Automatic annotation (TrEMBL):
Organism: Sulfitobacter mediterraneus
Protein name per the record: Chemotaxis protein methyltransferase
Protein task: Methylation of the membrane-bound methyl-accepting chemotaxis proteins (MCP) to form gamma-glutamyl methyl ester residues in MCP.
Cited InterPro entries: Bact_Chemotaxis_MeTrfase (IPR050903), Chemotaxis_MeTrfase_CheR (IPR026024), CheR_C (IPR022642), CheR_MeTrfase (IPR000780), CheR_N (IPR022641), CheR_N_sf (IPR036804), SAM-dependent_MTases_sf (IPR029063)
Amino-acid positions noted as binding S-adenosyl-L-methionine in the UniProt annotation, renumbered to this chain: N81, S83, R87, E124, D150, N209, L210, R226, N227
Lineage of the species this protein comes from: Bacteria, Pseudomonadati, Pseudomonadota, Alphaproteobacteria, Rhodobacterales
Residue ranges of every copy of the CheR-type methyltransferase domain listed in the record: 4-283
Pfam families (UniProt xref): CheR, CheR_N
Catalysed reactions, semicolon-separated: L-glutamyl-[protein] + S-adenosyl-L-methionine = [protein]-L-glutamate 5-O-methyl ester + S-adenosyl-L-homocysteine
């Protein structure tokens, strides 16, 4: 038998179904057959890393008791982590307005909590931190914290490291770069921007699967969950809305991504108050 080069190993239909079922159970990701070739190319490096000949053998590893850590690699390979600073900028304007409305109460000892749920490499949480720092030079003295979570431990670690190569910096003005980042130049000549400690310390980055338990004992003023539920089916999305409502302040805001919506917001206790912006229905 002639061994196939890894670049030619095909994702067979049975393995596709096993991988799709696992991805759905573990993370809510819905994989459709039309994406077979994309999934195949995203997973070939896992076959190489494990020295496996085909996807059937890979599925056997995933399903075994020892496959737990491989399932994490699987989810990491399958998730789409695209993000950028100040993406969908209108939400950061709304955040700034909300902060202004609460600033006096905050300065009198109140608190504000923000959650970037599905934070990817941290650019969303940092954009929130920079937005607020621009509004309040005394931000570090206020009781304001940002929680940023993602199922993919690789992106969480990247976000914790808080080092952004130049190519990640689109959307950050020159003035912001000098205020909130320190610049270093790598051996290959590419600039790297490390987040200034005063900004970095506003954010706590944690791994968290939105479909699992949420060890959260606070109410959030703002939840960003943008460009995440687009990968979930309607049933999975509908399980999330009541959970967000439960951890959202009665006058807090939930931001979704540009192509996401709560189909029947009132049914889930929300009202839509602007493009992809929701708040709890008044009680
Ligand atoms: C396209 S990125 C969006 C990043 C950012 N929110 C934005 O809009 O720029 C989607 C992120 O959702 C994360 N994600 C997917 N399924 C998840 C789940 N079940 N729990 C938590 N995060 C999840 C992915 O790992 C990925 O980093």
């Amino acid at each position: 038998m002639i061994a196939l080069a890894q670049s030619e190993v095909a994702l067979d239909p049975d393995s596709f179904r096993s991988i799709a079922d696992l991805a759905y159970q573990e993370s809510g990701l819905t994989l459709v057959e039309e994406k077979t070739s994309m999934i195949q190319s995203r997973l070939r490096h896992r076959l190489r890393a494990l020295k496996l000949d085909d996807f059937a053998a890979y599925c056997a590893v995933l399903k075994s008791d020892a496959g737990r850590s491989e399932r994490r690699h699987l989810i990491s390979a399958l998730t789409t982590n695209v993000s950028h600073f100040f993406r969908e900028a209108h939400h950061f304007d709304q955040l700034a307005d909300l902060f202004d409305a609460r600033a006096a109460a905050l300065r009198a000892g109140g608190r504000m909590r923000i959650w970037s749920a599905g934070c990817s490499n941290g650019q969303e949480a940092l954009s929130a931190a920079i937005t607020l720092a621009e509004r309040a030079p005394d931000l570090s003295q206020l009781n304001l914290k940002i929680l940023a979570t993602d199922i993919d431990q690789n992106v969480v670690q990247f976000a914790r490291d808080a080092q952004y190569p130049q190519r990640f910096m689109r959307g950050v003005t020159t003035e912001m770069r000098s205020k909130y980042f320190n610049v270093t130049t790598e051996e290959n000549g590419e600039k790297h921007y490390s987040v200034a400690p005063s900004t970095r310390q506003l954010i706590q980055f944690n791994a968290l699967n939105l479909l699992g338990q949420w060890p959260i004992r606070t109410k959030f003023d703002v939840i960003f969950c943008r460009n995440v539920v687009i990968y979930f089916d309607a049933e999975t999305q509908e399980q999330l809305w009541p959970r967000f409502l439960e951890v959202l302040h009665p006058d807090g805001l939930l931001f979704l991504g540009h192509s996401e919506r709560i189909a029947e917001p009132e049914k889930f206790g929300f009202e839509c108050i602007g493009p992809t912006t929701y708040r709890p229905l008044p009680q």
